[in-house]
UniProtKB/TrEMBL annotation:
Signal peptide: none annotated. Keywords: Hydrolase. Residues 186-280 form the Peptidase M20 dimerisation domain. Gene3D superfamilies: 3.30.70.360, Zn peptidases. One of its GO terms (molecular function) is hydrolase activity. This is Hippurate hydrolase.
Length: 395
């Protein structure tokens, strides 16, 4: 592994930053403390700092030389509404809020890269370090873009990184094309006519309609979708009624849809409307379908992915880079940035959890788990990766 010496030498400082952020997690767009910490560090190192981009996002800008080329590097800052199970010293001090996805580590890695670029960077052009709120919910990347992110801070390409438990610590995994799925939510409301449960012929049962609809929806994936196109349709909730001896008037079911292509997503949405209306009609009920497209699929640009893979191999060695990892049905709002600019999103292995300090929870070290903790050994790896990307892209 060829870490950048100055970054490796500052590993303890990066760990302190990361653990401070972990101890003070913030949700969604309310990342005021974290954003202030980021802005203060960037200003200290000589970046031109623009706060409040997309409400609470922070962008730091650094220019060297005369080139008009520019690169964007992104980290997310928000935590999750999870009660932490860990009891080590840097555990969350906010009840019910926890950095259970490693955004504390992502922020610290990008700060480590920013410091090196300011003090030792060898590049010709402009670097924009983008610290984003509300990745977990609220579409912070979209909010920053709608606030003029790429008009105010032009980027020829943009890059991001996410730690990934289960991949060996310090190994990279990436692929050109679709890496992560789109995510959409749906809720289907059914209205019948309530009646006594002993006299169901006097009513119109929305519960029975919901049960048939749940089964019918699965036919979209098994019979309408091209089998070679990845897709998931999961009904995760059914709600109806309050009394055991009453057929209710209303029922609803809802869940999530994940796809890698817009065509498949459009097919599922269209068929969901048709099937819901038909099933409801068959049981003499009315229906209403709400279908919310949240994040698009994360699609890596082939050319920028090839460049990123070269940097990864130079940093950690060819044997520690999987350049054709299987895509995942998880979603990521960096996809909005990749829809606006070419770029690459990659995974950096977080290991199996053996790195956790004494006092960690009994659960596995998985994303969105109350016993998770970011692997601090990755901080100089991710920071070195970002720096080497800049030097290669703006070399």
């Amino acid at each position: 592994m060829k870490l950048i010496e100055s970054i490796a030498a500052n590993a303890d400082e990066l760990q302190a930053i990361r653990r401070d952020i972990h101890a003070h997690p913030e949700l969604g767009y309310d990342v005021f403390r974290t954003a202030a910490l980021v802005a203060a560090r960037l200003e200290q190192w000589g970046f031109a700092v623009t706060p409040n981009v997309g409400r609470t996002g922070v962008v730091g800008t650094l220019t060297r030389g005369a080139s008009s080329r520019a690169i964007g590097l992104r980290a997310d800052m928000d935590a999750l509404p999870v009660q932490e199970a860990n009891t080590f010293a840097h555990r969350s001090t906010a009840a019910g809020v926890m950095h259970a996805c490693g955004h504390d580590g992502h922020t610290a890695m990008l700060l480590g890269a920013a410091r090196h670029l300011a003090e030792h960077g060898r590049f010709d052009g402009t670097v924009h370090v983008i610290f984003q709120p509300a990745e977990e919910a609220g579409g912070g990347a979209r909010a920053m873009i709608e606030d003029g992110l790429f008009e105010r801070f032009p980027c020829d390409a943009v890059f991001g990184l996410h730690n990934w438990p289960g991949i060996a610590a310090g190994d990279f995994a990436v692929r050109p094309g679709a890496l992560m799925a789109s995510t959409s939510l749906f809720k289907i409301r059914l209205r019948g006519a309530g009646c006594h449960a002993a006299m169901p012929h006097l009513g119109r049962d929305p519960v029975l309609a919901a049960a048939h609809l749940l089964t019918a929806l699965q036919g979209i994936v098994t019979r309408n979708r091209n089998p070679v196109e990845g897709a998931v349709l999961s009904v995760t909730q059914i709600h109806a009624g309050e009394a055991l001896n009453v057929v209710p008037t209303d029922a609803w079911l809802g869940g999530t849809v994940r796809t890698f292509s817009e065509e498949t997503l459009a097919l599922i949405e269209r068929r969901m409307h048709t099937i819901a209306a038909s099933v409801a009609s068959a049981f003499e009920c009315e229906c209403e379908v709400d279908f919310e497209r949240q994040y698009p699929a994360t699609i890596n640009d082939p050319a920028q992915t090839a460049l990123a893979v070269e940097v990864m191999r130079e940093l950690v060695g060819e044997d520690h880079v999987n350049a054709a990892v299987d895509p995942t049905m998880a979603a990521e709002d960096f996809s909005f940035m990749l829809n606006a600019r070419p770029g690459c999103y990659a995974f950096l292995g977080n290991g199996s959890g053996d790195h956790r300090s004494p006092g960690h929870g009994a659960g596995p070290c998985l994303l969105h788990n109350a016993s998770y903790d970011f692997n601090d050994a990755l901080l100089p790896v991710g920071a070195s990766y970002f720096v080497k990307l800049v030097e290669r892209f703006l070399g």
